[in-house]
Amino acid sequence: MLEIKGLHADVDGKEILKGIDLSIGEGEVHAIMGPNGSGKSTLSYVLSGRDGYDVTAGTITYRGRDLSELSIEERAAEGIFLGFQYPVELPGVSSTTFLKTALNAVRRQRGQDELDAVQFMKRLRVHTKALNISDDMLRRGVNVGFSGGEKKRNEILQMALLEPHFAVLDETDSGLDIDALKVVAEGVNALRGPKRSMLVITHYQRLLDYIVPDYVHVLAHGRIARSGGKELALELEEKGYGAFVSGTEAA
Amino acid sequence: MAMEAYQAQFAAHLPKAGPAWLADLRQAAAARFSAAGLPDRKVEEWRYTNLKPVQEQLFALDTAPVGDTPPALLQDSHRLVFSNGVLQGSADDLPDGVRLAGMAETMAENPGLLAGHMGKLAQGQELPLPALNQALSRDGYVLAIDPGISVSRPIEILFLSDGGASYPRNLILAGAGAQATVVEHYLGLGGGGYFINAVTEVEAAAGAKLQRYKIQQDASGSSHIATLAGQLQDGARLENFDLNLGGQLVRSEIHMALQGVGAEAALNGVYLLRGKQHCDNAIQMDHAVGATNSQQDYRGILDDHAHAVFQGKITVRPDAQGIEGHQLNKTLLLSDEAEIDSKPELQILADDVKCSHGATAGELDETGLFYLRSRGIPEDEARQLLMTAFISETLAKIDSDAVRGIMERLVGEWMAA
């Protein structure tokens, strides 16, 4: 499904990713763990095609296609979704308008009919109910005045609506208390399926108690230092990153 | 141009129609303008706007009417159409207690209505362009509403232009408790290098409620200068909105006096400029007495080499206690060559006041753009969403649903162009 080979990437001329190899199969959930500055967020931005994150060597093949040929919005239409660590506030853009515009833009690019207001609201209701998203949140500007938990639930709502094949969740647990984390994790787990792969990026093992991965990778200094099963996360929790990352303090 | 040259031009062009007091008003205005001339950039209020391009056009009067009149913006309005500054036809079905007519017609039929009002507010040495308008104007609209009368249908005034120089002179007299909505629509045909210098004077008696909306879509090569001078008595309210889309050289000047306790003015505007357009909004808000309120919210989007200016001054007189005056100017710059000069100013001589001012200028939020695109929204559409969001807060302040709808449509068309 996703094949990353020898990936090097620069941000502002500084090399952050220094040769990443990673293979993710259909329906698999992979976790990437690593200390601050190891390149976790950079990898998520490179996968989504953000400007300023330049691939200098290596390849990313997604469902048989070279990802570098696709713009940000084309990647979204092809089924790549990035759940943001810090969801962006868009004052003046109502949440409902945003969600409808996004869903219809993706449907258009996928060759599906656009949904009218009634069809859209019907579909939206199913997800907002499950994720406990209020009408008030939908009326407000995107993420404006949302609590940390509301922002992350709103990310999962977008993921549910856009039905991606491959979701990258960048530190979805950051800023959440345990109750909010459970709601978000349940939302993510409800979206797991044989046709949907996920890359869960996190600093802490805690999230992986709720979103249990098939594989765990440790990212350090822009490379994958070690890969293993879900038990690797527990080992990390016990020993800290120091055991895997020479020259880096356990955070 | 030298004083003598101006005097010769005025001698040839001063209109003759009307009563003696009007002839005196014109003569005095011509003398003031001849002495002062067009303001140059050494004058603080004109620091950012160069009027040289209009110098040769000032006396290009007597232009033939424009051909076909486009359809009205508003449904079911009382409508007047001016063609290169001269009224065509008349408004029909006016309710009792409402006069809506041409200025020339009113001068001939009912000059007493104008005496003591015309030129009362847009006067003085510091206003050379209104003086030029006073001297040369032949027409404009007069709206006089008797006390207690509410005009239920909106009033739409179209100023259609394609050449020469025109000097619309407009007067709104709202009696105590009167209410009306007025749209001034300036529309250019062709690419024309014409010149408009318009003046609108507004007197709102106690408790009057006025909405005045200006939509400026003059031709791309034209120069548009407009002055709004208003005076609001006890409890009167004016909502003014200025949408600037057209013209090459544009100056919109407002002088608002909150003269009575409880008077309130909301002066908002949007400017959307590209190419080499220049638009200067200059506002003077005068809190003459206590317990008065004013708000200003001006936002703009500039592309290419466009240049915008916002100069806003709030003056609070020594005894004007318990007032509130707020001013905000925000500009989005889409190009490195676009420029905004924003100069908010507060002069507060009372001590119990709530005043604020703020100005921001910046680029389209790159992070927001990335967020939208990461959800599959194509870049052009994402940019338009963010631009619309930037303007929407100001447009939301328009009280009239019908007019807000028109403004939103025009803003959308500008963004899609």
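The two ends of chain A are 32 Å apart (CA to CA).
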